[in-house]
Amino acid sequence: LVAAVIWGVPRWHLYPLNEVRVADELHEVRRAEIEEVLGGLLHGNFFTVNIDALRQALEQLPWVRRAEVWRRWPSQVEVRIEEHQAVASWGDGDDRLVNTYGEVFAAKRSRETRLPKLSGPAGTSAEVLLRHEEFSKILRPTGHLPVQVVLSPRQAWVLKLEDGLLIELGREQAKAPVRTRLQRFVDHYPTLSASPYGQPI
Fold first, then answer.
1. Strands ordered across the beta sheet of 19-22
2. DSSP letter at 128?
3. How far apart are the C-alpha atoms of 193 and 198, rounded to whole Å?
4. Strand partners, 21
5. By three-state DSSP, how is residue 146 classified?
6. I want to staple 107 with a disulfide (CB 3.0 to 4.6 A). Which of 57, 62, 133, 149 is the partner?
7. For each successive 10 residues of the chain (201 residues), what is the average pLDDT?
8. Which helix (H) or strand (E) holds 65?
9. What is the pTM of this model?
10. Residue 103 phi/psi, 5° resolution?
11. Chain centroid to CA 19: how far?
């Protein structure tokens, strides 16, 4: 009899869920999106609601990188959401973005911000993002940062600077690393930019 009571208590309608609390300040994910995606999953009561199903549903939202869901006694579900932070666009379109971890995700931006364009073969987004950061640091003395970094299918690197200049660095080589070739360009940039022919080539 005791076992039957213990088994049955969670299924009584004594502990309804009254609130979903979002613990983080969100910038891209909207409260309405959360309510919509969770609305059909808040079945049962505090004890029987499927927490794992709630988490999986939240992680299907475009700007959600990771979600965590907990029960909070006596009638609350608490949600923590890690949003993607877009640092670049990926490929030719505007709806594929790269986050700070170098992961590609699909989402529409709510604010028009200028992001560098990165592209490369499938699975290379993290490498291309790291290279963009490396190239930006090397190029900083010139005052022109890369707005586009491309890794070709043949593993050759091409940069496009803010002023429209294209720099073809080619493939990585042990005797002549890509960063060394780019540094050589930076070292000669003052002379090249003063050329009567205008833009350095």
1. 19-22, 76-83, 64-72
2. H
3. 7
4. 78
5. strand
6. 62
7. 45 75 92 91 90 97 97 94 97 90 94 91 98 98 95 97 95 95 92 52 37
8. strand 64-72
9. 0.83
10. -95, 140
11. 29
